Each structure stands twice: as structure tokens, then as C-alpha cells.
Amino acid sequence: MSQAIVPHGEVRQKRTLWGKIRRIIWDDIEDPEERAFVRRLDCGLMTIAMLGYFVKYLSQANVANAYASGMKESLGFTGNEYNTLLTMFTVGYVIGQFPGTLATVRISPSIWLPTCEVVWTALVMACAAAKNVHTLYGLRFIIGLLEASAYPGMLWVLGSWYGPAELGKRVVMFQATSSVGTMFSGYLQAAVHSGLNGVGGLTGWQYLFLMDGVICMPIAIAGYFLIPDIPTKPNPRARWYLRDQDIKMAISRMERYKRAPTKGFTIEIFKKTMTSWVPWTFFIPYTCFVVGLGSYAYMNLWLKATPQWKNNITAINVIPTGGYGLSIVMSLIYAWTSDALNTRWPICFIGGFPPLVGNIILAVWPSANSAKFAGFFLNFTATPIGAIMLAWVNEIMAASGEARAITIGFLNTAAYTVNAWAPNLIFPASQAPHYKAGYKVTAAFFAIWIISIPIIIVLLRSLPVPTWIDESVHSGKEDDNIEKHPDLESSLNRSMVVAGVDGKATEPQ
């Protein structure tokens, strides 16, 4: 490798072509000690993050698969009771989002997140014993309440350990495991329906809930020993894979990236966070994403209502998994591109167009099944763009660990508050599979998402983002605590990595 002079008089070797490719695909960290630390972090933190999100979606997807595989008939679902069942989960999810995210920070991620997961796993298994729809309502509400912390809580943990050049691809891969969980649920339901249906007097959909518990419980327990908490307050049970020098390295890296540790929630931090423009501006596109994302979830209902597949339970469960596979592929593409560009907004912007087209196709509802397949599969590509937006928010609010948690918790709470009732109006079960307004509305939501991205860029370049600077170092004037970000997403800085909310950057690591 040839050498190049970089700021501060340091001599830095230029990366080879393979080094640049390797950095895009995963990482190309030059310091061997730092590289070893990140690999160790991947083996522990990323493993449990992905497994935990996998089982979260395994337990979510089983309801749709069980409903399409005999639960509807067994429990006597009528009218819009299926929508109500989904809503009960979402209501619990909404109620648990904000307090659950704050509890993750206040108590300890390695205590709170696994404990919630252990309890919700037990309740998922209890769904197999439900004798009526109303029992499922109560169970799904509590499950939603407990699952609410999993996504924002783990996203906050990831943002506490990984730098800007590493976070994008890992957050998206974390998100992509939701598709893996949903795919696996489809395969699992197809397998248990053909192999266990009727065994011991239980139906295939009941075995699905029981098998979910068998898979999820060991992963939930492993979280107590694999989630490392945060660098300044590491989990002692995770010290078997994170050594003292790793903790020191993590603290040094977070200082380098201007990513502040937690100092404790205060009214002032909450007020300063929620009176800034950031959470309220991101609320609009993120809510559109959350509600619009559900448009692909009705594919199995369309398959069940189509003569070609209506009596083929295996096909109804397996065919949609192709869309989840596509979602995983797009997640990798978007993650690599986002980290290669060292910026988030182009992927958020471009990623909104495929689901926009997909929803327009389904809004037209063409007669050809091939066109409907194209519409549904294009909708699956939307999954990773929400994770990239939250990675973007993580970086913008990096100056306070509490502010990151508050903002992420608020965005998820607000979005799922809308999502708790919106599907009942735009996708009523009584109209399945051809909804009068459904796909027209979700097409409009993705159009709003696309329009919102350049607006956010303008605001980032013109409005201040709050920071939380040590008053013992600064004068305490309000102007000392706020800086503007004219170059935060500037194309002139594409060769740099955004380090924090102050708009400064560091060389790619």
C-alpha cells in the first residue's frame, strides 16, 4: 500500500482495492487490536441482537400463519376479529414502547430485555391453549407490551458500541433478521401442519405456538450473558468475551465519535430533546413507513382467497417467504451502500420508490396474478429503510445517550400509536383480499416518506440540533450548547464519516 498524509501530520496508508471492497462489505479496520475488538463484539452483541429480533418476529408472524392454517376455523373468528387481534398486540406494543425503552436505559439492557423475552415466550406458548378469540386478545396485548422494548432497546445498545462506519450495516442486518424470523415461521408452520397436525389431539397451529417457545426460550436466557450493556457500565456477565482492554477500547471509540455515555434521565434532558425539531420532523416519515410497511402482510390472505392456492396450506405459508428473502437481499444492498457513501439519506430517499410502485400496482389491482406478485414483492423491499432512518437518528442525537433513547422511543411509540388503529380502517378483514382504500393509502404514505427526506436535509443544514455539553467546561450560555450542521450530509464530506451532531467528521476507520 502507498502512503498518504492525513490531518495532524499522521501518515496513513492508502487502502488497496480489496481493502476498499472489504470495508464496504463489512469493515476494514487497520488497527489489529481495534479490529479484534469489533470482531469480538460482533460475535457477542450482534449474535444476540439478531437472534433476539429473529425470535421476536417468529412470535409475531406465527399469528398470521396460524390464522391461515386453521386457527380461524378452530376459534370461530368472524368479521373483523382478526384485525382486532392484531390491534390488541399493537396497543400493547404502543403502551410499552416509551417506558420500555427508558427502562432499558435506566435498569440495564442485559436485565430488562432478556426478562421481557422470557415472559413473552411463555405467553406465546400459552396461545396454544386458547379456547376462544377473547383469550387470544388478552395474551397478545401482554405479548405486545413485553416485545415493545426489543427493537428500540437493542438499537440503542448497538448505537452505544459501534461507530458511524460500522453502525449502518449492522442495524440493517439486525432489522433483516425480522424477515428471517417471518420466513422461518412460514416454513415451520408448513412443517408442523404436515407432520404434527392431529398428533396428541393438537392441531398444527397449536404446535406452531409451542415450537416457537422451544426455539425462543434458550435465546432469551442467553441474552443475560451476551448483551454487554454500554461501554461505561458493562455487563459483568458478558466479561467472558469482552476483556478489560476491550472496554477501554470501546470508551475510547465512543469519545472519538462524540457519542456520549448515559448520565441519568432528567426533566431538562427530556424537555430539550422533545422541544427540538428532530423527533417531530422524523415522526412524519417514520410513521408513514411503519403503517405503509404492513401492506405486504396481507399477501397470505390474497393467496388464501385465490382459487389456485386456497386449499394449499403449505403454499399459503411458503410463497410469501420469497418476499422476505428479497427483503434480506435489499437489506444487505442498502446497508453496504449506506456505509460506503458514509451517509444515510440517499438510501432512505431511493428506498422509498420500490414500495411506492408496489402499492400503486396493488391499488390498481390488476387481473393478472403475476402483476399482483410484483406489487407484493416490491413492498417487501421497504423493510430496511426504516432501520437506516433510525441509524441516522442515532447519529444525529449522539451527544446524549438519554436523548438517543428518548428520540428512538418516541418515534416508535408515535408510529405504532397510529399503526394501532390505521390498519383497521384501511385494511378491514371483511374486505380481504381486495381493499377499497388500503393500497391507495399506503402508496400515499410512501410518497410522503420520499418527499420528507429532502426536507429533513434542508432542516439539518439550517436548524440547530441540541447538544449536552459539560457545563464545567463551557460558559453555560445557550449558544454554547447548540451548533448548526451545514455540512452534516454534504456531498463534499462523502469521504469522511459523520462523527456526531456537531457536523464534524473523522477519517473512515
- Shape by Cα distribution: globular
For the record, the CATH class is Mainly Alpha
Number of strands: 8
Strand order in the largest sheet: 1-2
How many angstroms separate the termini?
16 Å
Number of helices: 21
Beta fraction: under 5%
Sheet with most strands: 2 strands, antiparallel
CATH-wise, what's the superfamily? MFS general substrate transporter like domains
CATH fold field value: Growth Hormone, Chain: A
Count of domains: 1
Give the uncertain stretches in residue-range form: 1-12, 469-509
Domain Major facilitator superfamily (MFS) profile: 45-464
Region (Disordered): 476-495
Subcellular location: Membrane
Membrane topology: Multi-pass membrane protein
Describe this structure as you would to a colleague:
The chain has 509 residues and is mainly alpha-helical. The protein has a single domain (31-506), classed as Growth Hormone, Chain: A (Up-down Bundle). Helix content is 68%, strand content 4%. It contains 21 helices and eight strands. The chain has a two-stranded antiparallel ribbon. Strands 3-4 form a two-stranded antiparallel sheet. It has a two-stranded antiparallel ribbon with strand order 5-6. α2 (32-75) packs antiparallel against α8 (204-226) and α3 (81-106) runs antiparallel to α4 (109-126). It is globular, with a radius of gyration of 23 Å. The two termini are 16 Å apart.
